[in-house]
Every structure is written in structure tokens, then in C-alpha cells.
Amino acid sequence: MSFDAKIPQGALITGASRGIGRAVALTLAQQGIPVALVARSHPDLVAVQTEIKDLGGRAEVYPIDLSDLPALPQRLQSLLADFGPCDVLVNNAGMAYVGPLATLSLSDWQRVIDLNLTAAFLCAQAVLPGMRQRRFGTIVNVVSIAGKRAFPDWGVYCASKFGLMGFSQALAEEERQHGIRVTSLCPGSVDTPIWDTDTVAVRFDRSKMLSAEWVADLIAYIVRLPSGAVVEDLTLMPTAGIL
Fold this sequence. Notes:
The chain is built from six helices and nine strands. By secondary structure, the protein is of the alpha/beta class. The strands form two sheets. It has a seven-stranded parallel beta sheet with strand order 3-2-1-4-5-6-9, sandwiched between helices. Helix 2 (42-54) links the parallel strand 2 (35-39) and strand 3. Helix 1 crosses helix 6. The protein starts with 10 loop residues before the first strand and ends in a 7-residue tail after the last strand. 42% of the residues are buried. Residues 10-198 form the Ketoreductase domain.
């Protein structure tokens, strides 16, 4: 398939310090798209920025805590004022929590919902005015297979991802008239550092998982599709199935 000659002016990538976010940043930068790297860890973001600069790309670092919801809109406006237009948003940042709903604390519930769902909503709100003005933009929400299928002990994660799926679908319907495309990408298990976090107390065979680079390649393909085409909903699974 041939691609548009128009290259996005910039891409905002959340969770860009590692895993899928890092892989997406490297892939888009190699395609000539400047990237705004967002995550909490400044040193990790600088490491990704250095990798991109070594490849001849442009990357700017924005250490932002996406879970600080009251401060987030202003932080994002400052980012856009500094970085410039973002024709691509990849809502990738997220966390998982494994445990039964019956004993889940309200604070843990809210922490997952804030990051996985509400932060994505606020990031989309930040970039939409510019995308509407230019009548050009692509928003990729990295949902998860857990946004389509429920799993025991993953209740709050599933709730946040089902919510993100609903948000993505509604946003797609609202924004298509403005020339903005919205994709819900639902990967199965991906070999990323999320499996090393203290809120995920399960162990799977990570050699059978998808790689972050495979997911990044797919996101880059979606971003560079001709403007008359959109992938609205896509599920990518490892051949081993649900792990």
C-alpha cells in the first residue's frame, strides 16, 4: 500500500520511557516524525532521546506524572506550546493490578482508572483543538485484549480497558467529521517491563509473548495509512494465544 506524502509534524507518546512506548518512539522517529516523549522517569526518557538522536531523529523529553490529574491539562498545554503541533497521539501509558475485586482497595481501583483511562481522555482533549484546526490527526489508544475479554483477578485492569475501548469508539464517531482518525489497538500479552512491577504478581512464559517492536511497527503502519483510510479496531495476538 502506498502512503500519504504528508508526514505528521509531531507525535506525542505516553509511557515512552520503556516497553511499547519506547519502541513506538524509535520507530516513528526513524520514519522522520519528531516525537514528544512523556513518562515519569526523566533519566529513562533521556536515554530514549539519546537513542533517537543517534539515529538522526528529533525527540524532546517531558517528565510528566500522568496520574496527577489536576495538573495534567496545564502540563500538556505547556508541552504543546514548547514542542509544536502533534498530529499523532499514542496513548500507551498504563499499569496493571492483579488481585480479586472483593478485596481491592478504593485507592488501588482509582489509581488504575486514573492512569489507564482518565489520563488518556485528558491527553486526547489536549491535542484535539490543534488536530481539528489542521483537519489532520491520528489517535492510537493502546487498549489490550483485556478491553474485550474479562479475566479473573484482573478486574480493575479490565474495567479500565473496557472503558478505554468505549472512549475510543465514541471519540472516533465524534471526530471523524473533523478529519481525525481514532484507533483502538488491542494487543494480547506483550513482553514489556509491566510484568516486573510489584502490582503484577503472575508469571507467564514471556518468550511466547508479542514483542514491543511488533506492536510499534503496527502503530507506525496505522499512522502512515492514507488519510482516506482508518483502522478503527484491531486485535493483535501472539500465536500461542492467551497466556
